Structure formats: C-alpha cells, structure tokens
Amino acid sequence: MGTVSLKWIDSQLMVGVDSYGHPLVTGSWPDKDPEWAALKPSDLLLLSAAACSAYDVVMILSKQREPLEGLEVSCTGEQDSNPPYVFTSIHLHYVVSGKVNVAKLERAIRLSEEKYCSVVNTLKPTVKVTSDYELVG
Fold first, then answer.
1. CATH number of 41-136
2. Bigger pLDDT: 58 vs 27
3. Closest among 7, 9, 27 to 17, alpha carbons compared
4. Is 101 helix (H, G, I), strand (E, B) or coil?
C-alpha cells in the first residue's frame, strides 16, 4: 500500500511527496494563473501511465535477455472540454531502440497494459487506452 501527501504552498502551487519521501512540485505560479510553474495534475496522470508501463516493459524484456538499448514512452490524452475534464482516451507510444525481437516486444507491451500496470488497468474501465510502438536504430 502506498501513501502520498500533498502540501499547499501558495496560490495554486503545491508540493507532493511520494511514499518514499521523493518530492514533486505541481501547480501554477502565484498570481500568474494559468502559467504552470510545475507539472499539471492531469499531466501527472499521463506521466504515471507512461512510467508504469515503461517499467513493466523494461523488466519483461530484461528477464527475456532482450538487447534493449533505449525506451521512450510518450502518452497523450484527450479530455472532455467541460468540467471535470475527464479523460476520454489515452494513447501510449513506445519508441524502442536495440535489436529487440518484435514478438517479444509486442508481448511485453500487451502484458504491461493487460496484466501488470496498475495505472493503465485502473483507467481502462472508463478510458479508452490504445498504444503503438516503433523500433529505431
């Protein structure tokens, strides 16, 4: 079980701390709304999905001794235009470098998105989650 905390600093600027004590700043500058000085909370959700799945993919390919040289994941999200601006769809794009076996890469992504990634699997009942990948180098 994880526990995070959030402390309001000023205006809309806040500092969060994860369950290991690592800080993260979120919000906008005081008196400069809507200029974001730190991560937007909705971007944190997208970042969490990307990080969670990337972690799984790296671990799975590593256990299979695949020659992964690099991995970047971009995550885009579409939101309703009216409050509460819920996400309606999220897309993960994996950019993989190394001579990785394509079938093993596809399986690693599928396992992450269907079995292991808690963030993606929490979102899937209400948000359409899609993905694709490209091999480079």
1. 3.30.300.20
2. 58
3. 7
4. coil
